[in-house]
Amino acid sequence: MELITILDILDSTVRSATPLLLACLAGLYSERAGIFDIGLEGKMLAAAFGAAAVAAITGDVWIGLCAGIAASLILSAIHGLASITFRGNQLISGVAINFFAAGMTVVIAQSLFGQGGRTPQLSGDGRFGPITLPFAETLRDVPIIGPIYYELISGHTILVYIAMLCVPFTWWLLSSTRFGLRLRAVGENPAAVDTAGVSVVGLRFAAVAICGVLCGIAGAQLATAEPAAGFVKEMTAGRGFIALAALIFAKWRPWYALLSCLLFGLLQAIAIRPDQIEAVFGFQVQAQFLDALPYILTVIILAGFVGKAIPPRAGGEPYVKER
Amino acid sequence: MNKMPKWADVVLIPLISLILAAFFSALVIWAIGEDPINALQVMIKGAAGSTYAWGYTLYYATNFIFTGLAVSIAFHARLFNIGGEGQAMLGGLGVAIVCLYIPWPHWTLALIGASIGGALFGVAWAVIPAFLQAKRGSHIVITTIMFNFIAAALLNFLLIGMLKPPGAMDVATAKFPEATHLPNIHEILGLVGIPFSKATPANISLFIGIAACVALWALIWQTRLGYEIRSFGRSEPAAKYAGINRTRIIMLAMVISGGLAGMMAINNVMGEAERLVLNAVEGAGFIGIAVALMGRSHPFGVFLAAILFGFLYQGGAELAFSTSIPREMIVVIQSLVILFTGAFDNMVRAPIERLFMRLQKSPNVASVE
Fold first, then answer.
1. Structural domains in chain A?
2. C-alpha of A34 from chain center
3. What is the ipTM of this complex?
4. B202 lies in a domain?
5. Into how many domains does chain B fold?
6. Which of A40, A288, A310 to mutate to test the interface with B (most CBs of B within 10 A)?
């Protein structure tokens, strides 16, 4: 296989991995604080719609991004209210949010645009375009490094770079700051945090809000970053659950999250290029098998046959203050 | 604290949750510029206004009875089976294989065979997550979600490849043989002289669903296994102390759950489509969650909630047909029902409990004086 083909596949890997990574980190904040979130899918979907709809109306993708984040935050607030304030079942709340987003996006899209649940095509300032990094053009002709820099590293949308920067930032925040330590503590032993005089409810709401913001960016990437040009119904197509799988695969750690999202992104990238797989491996791989592979791998990891994934200890349990 | 009369828990709270869900649904309909009252009238006419409408309502309800019961029995063991969708998909595969490859002489035998086939395939899809939960400590919610996606990929693979008859264009199996045709409600009611629309998919599976409700009720409240499942669900340490085997309960609860979800296929695959198509389940596995929550995991409650959701499903289809409200509105209503009866349960419950405590306190105070 030629270098340019490899770079093309890797380029598409980065693009498919970005929404996964953002949603995965979103889930990481929430779950490390002890709030299970299976509503990542719904939040991403709502954000994708919010971003595309507002970008279509205003023609400004940045306002669209803000709207996407706002849509996702509203769902986060519902999730927080249900699972923190009213101590409801976090899983059931997540299921409800997924359906709410799946239904509402189409109902609103139909009412606003009347195009069968999609938004109008975005163009120009209505979507995020690729950014050419400095010297990409000049270095292009340097062997090996040139094409890698030009094809793979340069030429993504701003959201891709934001997502990549989120990984070291999250790692730093969780491992080296007071907020991060408390956030992790509240997911392991909320009673201890409470005893130390720190608000469990406040921390958990903060975590859920961060989760909302990140899912918002993830949704915006799906609907408004080139080559995407708008919202179509059910456009997340299970990515929220792949992100959840990646989170388990990563054992709730930021750097591993990057790796697992890139792996799952790679699977998506090669699933749409069956001829390339045949050329390299000499046999056909069923696209359906590649679709299912992230889930199969996660089940294997969960089963503990290859390393054990241990979730945060207080995950899923509402905190009841002792009286 | 727990001094609320039983009727309030069983009737009042679900009713208030339902009213809240209905209120917010009406708000959404109003916000997109439609008349909620008119929408309700269209839904009632479309889902209950004729025997044709009832035929569809009951057909959908049958699906939801099976998936609702499946989620309920898992709830009793405090297991959240989100995998009903995948289990029902696999059930469809089981039913299709049984119907296509065994030459049945009569539909009664075919129905028994298909029920077993569907249930077994559903069980197979539920047993792996159950085993992983019981033995390896992996969370059943996550594994059942993953299994839904794996099931979808598997079915897609089989329907594009092996199961598709040569030369066919549709992504579906061949039509089942004539001998596996299940009598529909029109034919059944015709025997006793009651006229019913011919063109509806409601079929004999409805009665099997009702029988399953009764059987599950008996299992949960009249047998030792049911008692063990309920004890385990209430308190795992207590159940362990009483000598109840954790692995056995998790496995059996999920076997029953997966079997019920798989049996749904006798209705949608064998009864309606008479062949296995892609996406035959149409989200019924997920609606089972809403149905189980609304029905408070009681088979009779599940039956009522399934009828209600059948009504919503059919009514929603009519809405999309005769107003500008899209079909996805029913997904919104479904999510609101799950939200208010499930996630926001405490929000509804707490003020009512307080109210009853105040009501009960006052006569006591009077008698002391």
1. 3-302 (1.10.3470)
2. 18
3. 0.88
4. yes
5. 1
6. A288
